[in-house]
Design brief:
The chain is of the alpha+beta class. It has 2 domains: 2-106 and 145-180, no CATH class; 196-373, Histidine kinase-like ATPase, C-terminal domain (Heat Shock Protein 90), CATH 3.30.565. The protein has helices at residues 2-31, 46-73, 76-94, 96-101, 124-127, 149-194, 199-214, 219-235, 245-259, 288-298, 328-331, 338-350, and strands at residues 243-244, 267-274, 281-282, 305-313, 317-325, 355-361, 365-373. Strand 4 (305-313) and strand 5 form a beta hairpin. Helix 3 packs antiparallel against helix 6 (149-194) and helix 9 (245-259) runs parallel beside helix 10 (288-298).
Length: 374
């Protein structure tokens, strides 16, 4: 599909160039006459083709060879010098426009049906008296290089236009590369968040399920099902794009259900959900890291603790609040809070200007508030 699109773009680009140069070469046909036989005779004159080549060749040499070289090597002074030299060559040596205008010289002479030349100015004989031979003296003319202003103007316009178009193409290509790199970076960050399922969580969950299975508790089968659903969500490749918000909430509920297997009677756990019937899309692993962080640093083995979750879905946004007590023996561990920093970076990349994240840490409580416009 991409190859076909590239071919269509390439053919359209060629067609656009052909039409542009045909329009450019039609100007001499409209304004230059070639005698009584009409304009078709102009195609038999080398001056016409010389005029076209003098501007077509510099355009493509500048656009596809010289300008890319200057951009890569940053030779801007050399580029300016070369442009000046090209202008001098066109104005004093090649002079394509002046050569083309000479094709119309016969029409400027007196021909039947045209007005006669104007009479001599009054007092001309007195200002320029005739010599004894009857010949009128001519003013002394200094011979030197003639300046073709029109050719200079046209070639400068062609070069500048070609350079600008090429720089715009380079800018568009660089923007596409930047977007592609950002997309790959986002995918890598999503993969990193997936990999944050800590091995100790899996080991603890399996040990709890094993203990339930030994006692014949029916909760073991439910726990195994919850674990399989959660791992399926982690490993699902389609989660590189947006998913339904209900799937993210379901993963959170499965995660909490598994964590309840190791929650003792001293821990108070509260879950609240509102507006889940509203259909919304969200990038995966945006909400789940905050839940995982609360369990990681909020549970205590012997002292009382609490974890409170609140998720509310509205028509234009999603609100989440997570409150948990802080376990003193876990809060000061090296690398604590790195997961939340990574999640904030992911939010800035996926939802720029569309979220508000507040993280407040007190003496014995940790509060996370997220407002996400989706």
């Amino acid at each position: 599909m991409q190859t076909r699109s590239w071919k269509l773009h390439y053919r359209f680009n060629i067609l656009l160039h052909v039409l542009a140069w045909l329009g450019f070469l039609s100007l001499p046909i409209l304004f230059v006459g070639t005698g009584s036989e009409g304009n078709p005779k102009i195609f038999q004159r080398w001056e016409f083709w010389f005029f076209g080549l003098c501007f077509i060749v510099p355009y493509y040499l500048n656009s596809y060879l010289w300008t890319p070289y200057v951009i890569r090597r940053r030779k801007y002074v050399l580029y300016a010098i070369s442009v000046v030299l090209i202008g001098v060559i066109f104005a004093f040596w090649l002079r394509p426009f002046e050569r083309l205008m000479q094709l119309d010289a016969p029409l400027r002479k007196e021909v039947p049906g045209r007005f006669p030349p104007p009479p001599p100015l009054q007092g001309e004989e007195r200002l320029f008296p005739s010599d004894p031979g009857g010949n009128r003296p001519r003013l002394s003319q200094k011979k030197g290089p003639r300046l073709d202003i029109a050719s200079l103007y046209i070639v400068m316009l062609v070069i500048i236009l070609g350079s600008l178009l090429r720089m715009v193409q380079y800018w568009m290509q660089s923007q596409q590369k930047i977007q592609q790199v950002q997309h790959e970076w986002t995918r890598a960050e999503l993969a990193f968040l997936k990999a944050q399922v800590h091995p100790h969580f899996l080991f603890n969950t399996l040990n709890n399920l094993y203990a339930l299975a030994l006692t014949g508790d029916s909760a073991a089968a439910i726990g195994i099902y919850k674990l399989s659903q959660l791992m399926r969500y982690y490993m699902d490749e389609r989660n590189d794009g947006e998913v339904d918000l209900k799937e993210e909430v379901q993963a959170i509920q499965d995660f909490i259900s598994l964590q309840k297997l190791r929650v003792g009677p001293n821990c108070r756990l509260v879950e609240r959900y509102e507006g889940l019937d509203i259909s919304k899309k969200i990038y995966p692993f945006i909400l789940l890291p905050f839940i995982e962080n609360a369990f990681k640093y909020g549970l205590r083995a012997s002292e009382p603790c609490y974890i409170d979750f609140y998720i509310r879905v509205e028509h234009d946004c999603c609100r989440m609040e997570v409150k948990n007590s802080i376990a003193a023996e876990l809060a000061d561990q090296p690398g604590s809070g790195a997961g939340l920093k990574n999640t904030r970076k992911l939010l800035e990349r996926l939802y720029p200007g569309r979220f508000q994240l507040d993280i407040v840490r007190g003496n014995d409580e940790f509060l996370v508030g997220l407002l996400l416009y989706i």
